[in-house]
Structure formats: structure tokens, C-alpha cells
Design a protein that fits this description.
Distance between the termini: 15 Å
Number of strands: 21
Number of helices: 11
Bound molecules: zinc ion
Oligomer: single chain
CATH architecture: Alpha-Beta Barrel
Number of domains: 1
CATH topology: TIM Barrel
Strand order of the largest sheet: 1-21-20-19-5-2-3-4
CATH class: Alpha Beta
Length: 385
């Protein structure tokens, strides 16, 4: 991969021409230019903390191979992603362990290792209830089990960085405390927990609501309920799937207004993301239909969603198209903010000297973002120019 020394473009926030000088994978300086010969926009690379799969690859499938992980990372680079978390949902411990092994093997490559910032375990310590459990298989849902976390973290060589769980179990607060103590961030999700359980979880260190508003009962008491409870906790960050199908626009608007600094986007993408419209076979749900708008549903029962087929880039585009955010706000929600959550600091992220040279160069075209170049740690990992 070619090491870049400089890159020019229009700053995504100010629209002013800039030149970024790079040195050993880091932004050395940013100069303002009088003019610039490229019409393209420069922004921080995209960051997705919830990727189950992409473009035909599912990190949860038993057939997963190292070459699949490598392929998916390349496809994510093409889509402007410079940092992401492969996400493993509820399954048997041996299946999760096998997936982790393959991902860690792929991380022997330095650039892939830098791109895969951590592994997100979504489950198995989630609610058993229909609705909150979503599409996770009931037979493998279980109570919080610290020894299992320790075993999986050993296989992952310390790379498990985020666990989504439900605090409705008696053992949840203890497990949350232990995770946080070991540098694993804990998110509340797929939950049927009541107010006191959510409050307790936050007190002992839970810091995020995973795809708030989804994986919930179809009918909830008007109040109290676990959506209000999480929304009202100032210290909880919120991730949302803004593909235009998972949450209605007014709900996203309210979430974003309630937590203007602490809401970020996740794609929650499955292997169908990035594939052309058509019908496919899915391990969950049988035959699924992917529309050209990117909605993934059951062919037999089209009102039921069959997961997300959106890339983070298309979630970002949707926010702008729906007038819920400007381009620069949406980009921040898909880059600077998730990374701020993960690193728990906001100063060392984004277009500033001293920060990692994780950058994208793109063009707006009919409310679409066309990626021209992606740089990971100063290396050109994708170019369409
Ligand atoms: Zn989920």
C-alpha cells in the first residue's frame, strides 16, 4: 500500500481548500490553501462499531475464512470505512470462539489490525423475550457469565472491546463492573430491563445504548419503559441505525435532539449490505428480498425486516436526505463521534495535527457520497481516481 505524503481537498466542515501533510501515518500539519485544484471533500474516515457482515461475508457464519475477513475489510475501505468492529451475535460459545479465531488470524496484517479496532460481542447475555431478543437464537441466550467472557477474551487476545447485554439479569451489574475494569465497554441493548436495572447498570459503568428503539417489544407501556429510561440517562451514548427503515424520522430527530453530542450511527449491516437488489437465501429468515432502496425483508412476509442491508455510508446519506443533519454533522456522527465514544476522548480525533491519518476524499452526487480515496494510517487503501 502506497504511503501518502500529502492530500488536498475541501475541509468537510468549512468547505475551504486545505492540504494535509502526513508523516508515518499521522497528520503532521494542515495548511489552508488559497485555491485547490480538486473539487473533492476531505473528511475523517468512517467508523462503524457494529458490522455483522458486508458484501457477501458474514462474520457469524461457521464457514468464515480469513480471506473473507480480508475481502470484507477491502470492501469497507472502498465504502470509506477506516475503523470498524466485526460484531458477533448470540451463538454457541464454540461458534463465537471460532469466528473470533478467524478474525484474529486476519488481524496478523498490520493494516487490517488497525482497521479492526476491536470485536463487538452482541449477546449472548441478552433478553429472552420475543421482541427485545430480535433475531438472536433463543437457545444460546444465557445469563451473564464472566468466565465465558474471560475465555473468549483469551481467544481474542484482548481484542473484545464492546459487549452489548441486557441488565435484566441479577448477575449483570457485577459483569458490567468487571468488563469495564478490564477495558471492555458495555452497551445496553436487546433488553427488557426495568428502570431500576437500567439505572444500576449505568451506575456501574454501562455507557451506550445499542441501536436504541430497535430490538424492542412491539407494544410498550407509555411510561415508564426502557426507551425513555435510557434516553433520560445523560451519561449513556446512543447508537442508531439510520437506514430509513429501522427508525421513523421523528424518532431519530428526538433521539438526536436529546443527545446532540452523544448520538452516533451504526450500520448493523449483514452480509447483504453492498449487494445488488434481488432475492437471497439467509440463514435467518429463509428467502429474503433486497429492494433497490436497500430495504431487506422476508420475501413471504415483506412487512417484516430481515436485518440491515445498509452500509454506514448509506445511513449517513439518509440522515442528510431526510434533513435530519447537514453533511458535516452526519459525517461527524459516523466518524468522530463513535471514535470519541470508543476512546473516551474527543480531542485526539478528526482533522487535527497529531491525529491518525485516517481520511476520505469524496464527492457529493445527488445526495450520494462517492468515495474517491480512502487512507488508513496514511496508506492509500482505496482509490477510484
Ligand atoms: Zn442487535
Amino acid at each position: 500500500m502506497e504511503e501518502q505524503k500529502t492530500i488536498e481537498g475541501l475541509h468537510y466542515r468549512t468547505q475551504r481548500p486545505i492540504r494535509i501533510n502526513l508523516d508515518q501515518g499521522v497528520i503532521r500539519s494542515i495548511e489552508e490553501l488559497k485555491e485547490c485544484f480538486t473539487p473533492y471533500i476531505l473528511a475523517p474516515g468512517l467508523v462503524d462499531l457494529q458490522v455483522n457482515g458486508f458484501q457477501g461475508v458474514d462474520f457469524n457464519e461457521p464457514e468464515l475464512e480469513v480471506s473473507d475477513v480480508v475481502f470484507s475489510v477491502q470492501k469497507l475501505w472502498e465504502n470509506g470505512m477506516t475503523t470498524f468492529m466485526p460484531t458477533l451475535i448470540t451463538a454457541s460459545e464454540s461458534a463465537v470462539s471460532e469466528s473470533i479465531k478467524i478474525i484474529i488470524e486476519a488481524c496478523k496484517d498490520t493494516l487490517i489490525n488497525a482497521t479492526v479496532t476491536g470485536i463487538h460481542l452482541e449477546g449472548p447475555f441478552i433478553s429472552r423475550e420475543t421482541g427485545p431478543r430480535g433475531a438472536h437464537p433463543l437457545e444460546f441466550v444465557c445469563e451473564p457469565d464472566w468466565d465465558m467472557v474471560v475465555r473468549l477474551q483469551e481467544v481474542a487476545k484482548g481484542k473484545i472491546k464492546l459487549i452489548t447485554l441486557s441488565p435484566e439479569y441479577e448477575g449483570a451489574p457485577e459483569l458490567i463492573e468487571k468488563c469495564v475494569g478490564q477495558g471492555i465497554q458495555v452497551a445496553i441493548g436487546h433488553t427488557a430491563a426495568h428502570s431500576a436495572q437500567i439505572k444500576h447498570a449505568v451506575e456501574v459503568g454501562a455507557s451506550l445504548s445499542t441501536h436504541l428503539g430497535n430490538a424492542a417489544h412491539l407494544l410498550l407501556p407509555r411510561h415508564p419503559n426502557y426507551i425513555w429510561d435510557q434516553l433520560a440517562m445523560d451519561s449513556l451514548w446512543t447508537s442508531i441505525v439510520s437506514d430509513g427503515f429501522h427508525l421513523p424520522d421523528p424518532v431519530m430527530k428526538v433521539f438526536m435532539k436529546t443527545k446532540p453530542e452523544n448520538t452516533f450511527l451504526v450500520s448493523d449491516s449483514t452480509k447483504f449490505a453492498g449487494l445488488p437488489a434481488g432475492t437471497y437465501q439467509s440463514p435467518i429468515g429463509g428467502t429474503v428480498l433486497l429492494t433497490k432502496e436497500g430495504r431487506l425483508c422476508m420475501q413471504e412476509n415483506p412487512e417484516l425486516l430481515a436485518g440491515s442491508a445498509a452500509s454506514l455510508k448509506s445511513c449517513l446519506e439518509y440522515l442528510v436526505k431526510a434533513n435530519l443533519a447537514t453533511w458535516s454533522q452526519a459525517i461527524d456522527m459516523a466518524s468522530v463521534k463513535p471514535l470519541s465514544y470508543l476512546t473516551q476522548k474527543s480531542s485526539s480525533i478528526g482533522l487535527q495535527a497529531g491525529n491518525n491519518a485516517d481520511l476520505i476524499l469524496f464527492e457529493h452526487k445527488d445526495s450520494k457520497m462517492e468515495i474517491k480515496k480512502t487512507l488508513k494510517a496514511g496508506k492509500l487503501v482505496y482509490s477510484s481516481l
